[in-house]
Here is the input.
Amino acid sequence: MKLEPLRLAVIGCGFFAQNHLRAWRHVRGVRLVAVCDRDEERARAAAATFAVPAVYTDAGTLLERERPDFVDIVTTPPSHRELVELAAAHGVAVICQKPAAPTLEDACAMVTACERAGVPYMVHENFRWQPAIRRAREIVATGAIGEPYFGRITFRSRHDVYRDQPYLATDRRFVIADLGVHLLDLARFFFGEPDSLLCAARRVNPRIAGEDAATILLRSPAFACVTDMSYASHQERDLFPQTLIAIEGSEATVVVDADYEVALVRTGRRERIAILPEHRPLAGDAPLRESVLAIQQHWVDCLREGRTPETSGRDNLKTLDLVFGAYQSAETGEAYRPGTLLAASANPSGPSPR
Ligand code: NAD
Ligand code: 89V
Here is the structure.
């Protein structure tokens, strides 16, 4: 039986939405029926480029008139809560860009709104959908490296990220919230939940408001994982936007090296792992773009099959807890016990995490 395509609308047509819009053309089982941006020119430009029939400047009006099966929210974080709650109030499923919200209370409220309304909700956390990273995770799952006990997940650059995303220069909290959220999700993807976190962070670039370098150590009895990030690093070759990974196990190490090379390393030996050329319409594009297509397809497949997506709103609360815990640890100099802030945010009578 041929299923009708799911009708979707994209809200927010700025910088990163171009990647979403481009990817939606290749996702199986969807039809893009409308775009919306407060900035009408941006919405119109997106509609023209991607042949979208309807244009809105107000998300509420779009939801009333179009009644889509789901919306894809690609606005900046301060608007996420309002838009996710609006979708939930209309009984519309929702996928929302990272970081889900500027506070844990907002993120919890978004999950609650969607759960109460019975609508699926996923955070667009795309780094784990990069083909090389996915392949490395599969290798760990085969047992080829033995028992994983150490990880290093690193993203260091001096790329002028502020050119395309100027709000990052003025956000009081920058690199942990914007980029660290990806790396902390990857740490959870490879290792599961830590029981302790320690963070050091600093601002190197004096022209921005927030921190642009951070190192976070996650620990549990089973593993230690270091995630480190920077937009201030002088390097001979800048690898933006690549994430380098090493997962050490009792039998071998799996790495994602420069230029997305996946390899299995044993003392004195390196076995390159090819990433199979499956049917990947955006293959050859920047793997970040490919990861956008992969996560969007995952979301649609989950909606159709009634499955919970990997980075559901509820799952993503654990990643955000680590983000806010990292800020707390950096500010206090003390280790953070994961789950503490989340418990306080989910229970408003508890101590405020703000
Ligand atoms: P942007 O400022 O370029 O675009 C956001 C757009 O949303 C703007 O055009 C703005 O007018 C519109 N908007 C804001 N509030 C709105 C509302 N209530 N209704 C309708 N439109 C509204 O921002 P961006 O750089 O594209 O970032 C968007 C999101 O994407 C952020 O959450 C950012 O963190 C994320 N992002 C993710 C990745 C990734 O790899 N996953 C990369 C870059 C950005
Ligand atoms: O997610 C983001 O905001 C991306 C990146 C991590 C590459 O900075 O722009």
